[in-house]
Every structure is written in C-alpha cells, then in structure tokens.
Amino acid sequence: MRKRACGAISDGGEAICWRVWAPKAERVELVLLDGSRRRAVPMEREEGGYFSCTLPNVPDGQRYAYRLNNGPERPDPRSLWQPDGVHSASAVVRPERFVWTDADWKGVPREDLVFYELHVGTFTPEGTFEAIVPRLPALRELGVTALELMPIAQFPGPRNWGYDGVGFYAAQNSYGGPHGLQKLVDACHAAGLAIFLDVVYNHIGPEGNYLGEFGPYFTERYRNAWGPAFNYDGPGSDPVRDFILDNVRSWIGDFHFDGLRLDAVHAMVDLRPRHVLREIKEAADAAAEPRQVHIIAESLVNDVRMVRAPERGGYGLDAEWNEDFHHALHAYLTGERHGKYGDFVEILSLARALGQTFHLDGSVYSTYRGRLWGAPAEGLPGDRFVVGVQNHDHVGNRPHGDRLAALVEPPKLRLAASLMLLSPYLPLLFMGEEYGEENPFPFFCSFHNRNLVEAVRQGRRRDYGFAPGETMLDPQAEATFAAARLSWSWPEGSPRAGLRRLYADLLSARRTWPALRDLSHRTVRLLPDENTPNLLHMIRGVGSEQELHIYFNLTGNAQSLPGDVGEIRFSSEAPRYGGNREAAQGEPLRPYECVIFASLS
After folding, report:
1. Domain tally for the chain?
2. Whole-model pTM?
3. Which of 56, 193, 419, 461 could be disulfide-bonded to 466 (CB atoms 3.0-4.6 Å)?
4. What is the span of the domain harbouring residue 91?
5. How confident is the model at residue 601 (pLDDT cuts 50, 70, 90)?
6. Annotated catalytic sites, by residue?
7. Do residues 78 and 7 make contact, with C-beta atoms less than 8 angstroms apart?
C-alpha cells in the first residue's frame, strides 16, 4: 500500500517525516512539545503549497503541532492520534508496528453481509473499542457477519454521535485511540466478523475545524445542511481529494477495515468527469488487496448510479441504502404520517419496496419533496441494497430518541424483523434491536463552545416542535448520553429472549435455505387485492424447486390463508419467539403473524 502523502510519516525506523499541505501559509513551523517546553523547527517549502521536515529518533507518542505564519498552534489535519482532544497537539503513531493476526482473513462476500450498527460510546458501560471484544461471540452466534461502527473520527469532548468529527484520520481518544481500534479490528477478524466504519465526507464538524486555515478545503459554491461543503471540483481541489482518498487508504490499509459506509453521499457535490465516489472505491480496493472490501453509500435520492458499473456510467460502489423500506414499514407499523412518512401512507408502498426495491422510483409524486422523486432500481439484485427496521437516524432523530420496541407491541416487532430478514436485501440491525432494547438513543454531544451548545439546544427544540418550557432531553447533558447505553440483557423466558431467538433463526435461514440465498428472483402481491391489503404474499426463489411462499398478516385480526398452502416451516408467533400459535397447520394467521410455507399444493 502506498504511504500517506501527509501527516507524521514513518520510514520504518525511528525517523519521522512531517508533511502538510498549507497553501495559505507563507511560513510553517513544526512545534515539538515536551510538557510545557516547546521547540519550533522551520519546515521546508515544496511545490504546490506543501511543507515538510524530517527528524531522527522520534518516539511514539511525541506531541507536535503546526504553526502557520507565526499564528497559534494547530493540530495536524492528518493526525492519527489526538490524545488530548481536537484543540490540542497531535501525537506520533506508527500504525505499522501493530502485530496483526489476521493474515488469512479474506473478508465476507457481499451477499453474506449482515450489518450490526453500533455506537462505541454507548454499546458497553466502558464505551471503548476494547470493551466491544467480549461481546463479539454473542454477535457471531446471533448471525451477524459485519460490525458497522458509527463515526469514530476525533470529535469534541467525550460524547458525540460522531457526525461532528473534525480529526478525520484520528480514532476518538475517549474510545481508546488508534491502538484500541487496531485491537478491535483484529479481534473481529479472529471471531470471523467483518468490520465497517461509517465515515463523513460531505461536511466537517463545527468545533475544532482548522482545515480552512491551511488551504481551500471548502467551497461556497454549494450549500450543505450540516456544515461547510468540501471543495471536490473547484480550484485547489486536487489536494482536497487526496485528503479524502488518503483517509480511505488509512482506514482500509492501516486499520484493516473491511469497508466503509459513506454518510449522505447525495451531499457530496462533484462535477469533475471522474466523480470522487468512484475514486474512493478504487482507492479502497487497492488498499485492501488481496482482501475483499465493500463501499456502501447512504444515498437518499434512490439513484442506482451509485452502484452501477463505471462502464455503464456509474460510480461502481458495492451497495446503497434503501430507505424506502424503512419509511414504508415504519409508517405502516406506527401510523405516523408526518414529514417523509407522508409519502408512504398506503400499504402498497411497502409491497413496492419489497418487490421492486424503491417505492419512490421516479413514477411516484413525493408530497414531502413536492415533485417526482427517485429512479428505477433497474433489476439489480438485492445484495446491492441495505435495509433496516431502524438505525441511528431513525431512532435518534425523534424528539425523545424512542426505539421501535417502545412504540409498538411485540407481535409487530416480530413482524418487522421478519419483513427485513426475509427480504432479498442486505439487513442492518441497530444495536439492541435484536432483543427489543427500550433504552432510548437520543442525540447527544459534548461541545466546549457555549454559544454552539446553546445553538444546538435551540435547533433541536425548533426541529422537534417543542413548545417554550416543554421538557426536552438536553443533548449536552451527560445524563442524555448515559440513558442511551444498552442494557444488553435478554433473560431466558423473557420476551427479549424470544425476539432474539427469532432474529437468530431467521438469520440462520438466510444462510442455509436456497430460496433465501436467491437475491434476484421474488414476487410480491397484496391479498385479496391492493384495495383490501390484508395479507402480503412474497415468493422467494421463484421458479426453483426450493421456492418459498411467505405470508405476512398486515392486520390486527386473524386472517385466513388462500387454500391449502403446504407445509409450514416458520411462524413468527411460535411460542419459542413469545407468540401464542399452538397448532402448526390449518389455522388462520394470528394478528401481525408471518408464516413461511415450503410449497403450494
């Protein structure tokens, strides 16, 4: 793998070459810190706005900073370690010195991916990378094949969702920094699990962002809802793209991640002939060789250009999120119709999301957006799309951060899990959903700037429609963060244990039943018809000898099946899952029950 172009770069020995892109500066000094003592070393100017210097005998952990034009000390934009936070000095790390044990690890094929999204700070009481390791066997036993970490790039303070990160290369210090991260990744591979990282390349956080002092990282030509937009296509954009592509190489090469989830790619504006998304995929593949690596896009525009092959005008990514599935399912289960859910008021939208991938496929008017939205899925197989019952956004962007388990009764939870896990798409579980976690997951942060803290509070109050004086969870309060920690408990005999057993059984079926491994051939219809949608009938493995017929009762009443439907293989209302189905054959479907039959008579 090629070395990083900038940062504190090791030559394999004790020397370190510091290199930084700072075209806005006339003079740059490297400042070495030893407690309160400072030693400034002038850096040599190179072409293109770069500055560098090399020093011998540099120990691991050496604190350093840059001084631009005799200004204040600033952390390295490509620092791998910020042991004292976003405003303090960087520290030297030699990631190549970690002793990996995963030489035989080749990754997980795309069609076998089962994602488990987790937030490092709230997944365990300790809130660290290494504290996750003891829980890996339970996730593997469940049927998960890939962890997906919410963003870990250094953010202000110890508490944050991660989407306000500013140290793009540095693993969050309060989670255990780069050393703890490498141990987690290595442990995942030893347990037979892939591990993905959520990265944010569409904006940067509001506190501790010093990039603009170094060079033209941002542009005013495009607007972004969350912060300054990166300059991917304007003057000076070549080094900006290198900044992002080197970051990809670092996570994949230095830290052995098996893939990246790219946050909100629809907000990454790039009008150059070769889109930066295509270059991200190419950089990841090159850094991972010979491992298998996957780049997943969160795209809200329902455009398969994300995953279409480059020779067909696409960006060549491996998969993209299909939010239509969640929105249709959530609107159906909860009856909520506000905002984006207003486009999914009919059961037909759920059937369309299961049968043809997108409900909003360019032929459906979006009342939420005031125009036609999306494009067809072009017949692409299900392993090019990721779906979920809930994720951090779906839960955390609610006023009280309430999970689905706190909103609907157990039969609906079991039905939701069945719809996701029996769909032809790649499933994503949000930490704790597999046992019906009810602890909330609200938005939280720990900014230092008081004005920013108050702006966040007022913004959340406005966005959620809280009236003056109405109680709201304070995003800055440590108690809000603490409330989000998982209980990680499913006592035998409890409804939680039953739900977790259902997840495990269906994930096992996805691995072993041929019809469920066929991610291309399915049919979906509503019964008795679209005007009276009591049942959803999905056929998986259409035309094969292992064809499966799956019926979902979409009502709170018992529903009769259409004739003799064959041998039952699964019921979401079986007693082992906490349901009350006693007889296996010949009875109507219980309210919100899912039943699988091996064949039709």
Report:
1. 2
2. 0.97
3. 461
4. 7-96
5. very low
6. 263, 298
7. yes
